[in-house]
Amino acid sequence: MGIKCEGELHLGKSVKIGKNVDINCKEKFYLGDNSIIGDNVKINCTSFVANDYFYMMDGCEVGRGGSNGPKSKVTIGKNVGIFERTIINPSDEVTIGDNTGIGGEVMIWTHGAWLDITQGFPADFGPVHIGRNVWLPARSIVLPNVCIGDNVVIGINSIINRDLPDGCFAAGSPCKVIKENVYPKKIPIEIIDSQVKKIIEDWTELIKFKTDKYDFEVYNEGQFIFLNTDGKKTTYNVEDKIMEGNFNPLSEDLRDYLRRRGIKIYTGRLFESI
Fold first, then answer.
1. Fewest C-beta atoms under 10 Å: which of 26, 44, 89, 240?
2. Which residues are catalytic?
């Protein structure tokens, strides 16, 4: 167990790697700042690059089936989360763009063959590209030679066997485009205000359940959230993704809760909760 890399090895600042992790990369292993790899993770490929704020949760596996050749490369952008027990098979190249989330028990395959191709049985080999701002939810399967565009949302349990265009919502087995040119879209400020009010109400209930250590007040005005902790103010701009003012465990807990509710504010520090 541990990290084995014959070539370039880079571990960024504030990186956390869990227990029983086995990493074996012949040419390159790069893990950006503020990244987390959970327990019981296996990474076996020629090159693995994951940029800042990368999260790979417990039980994930990168490898399986011809994963040590010259094309066995995984390249992952910034702010990407891959959840529990997901499998990535990089017999060919796999690329994942910035701000993309991959749910639990997803499978991404770059090769698929078992029966005799000389008897007409199917076989498929080729790279997979997943764009920026994509949500690929739990138990979905991506097959070889697929390109998923930017700003795409996919339904749960989908089998993606064809390219998907930018901005669509797609679902099914096999996956089909349900709506085109859906994302991104401009949300009216009154709707943002209502959504944020609900989030801070839920967070307030949760934090009071977890601890009575802090004396605080929290409220929002449109896209802004204001948190006063022991007389010190923290301001969150949820549209521009900016956090200013006092940084303390409570304000970081709220930032982490916002992340879990779909508002990610990056400050150069790990997301941490109380």
1. 240
2. 111
